[in-house]
């Protein structure tokens, strides 16, 4: 919704509330699951650091996306 400039749509309210509930005390957001796959048969190792997958630890990639959404939401609210 952020990418198509629809964060002001009232249907986004529950999603924004859920996003804020998931924010950690340190201000970051967790990656609660792994959403990428390694190719079978080559290696079980990724050369990319995707950050931690944990409900209790901040993931920098998820945090950046969440902060972008929240920043855009503030821009619409002003």
Description:
The chain has 78 residues and is mainly alpha-helical. The chain has one domain. 35% of the residues lie in helices and 0% in strands. It is built from two helices and no strands. The protein has helices at residues 13-21, 60-77. The chain is elongated.
Strand-and-helix sequence, N→C?
A: HH
Tertiary shape: elongated
Sheet with the most strands, sense and barrel status: none
Question: What is the total tally of β strands?
Answer: 0
Q: What is the average of the pLDDT values?
A: 81
Note the gap between the termini: 18 Å
Taking pLDDT < 50 over at least 5 consecutive residues as the criterion, the unreliable ranges are none
Please give the count of helices.
2
What tags apply to this protein structure?
78 residues; mainly alpha; 2 helices; elongated
Task: Summarize the helices and strands and which ones pair or pack.
Elements: H1 13-21, H2 60-77
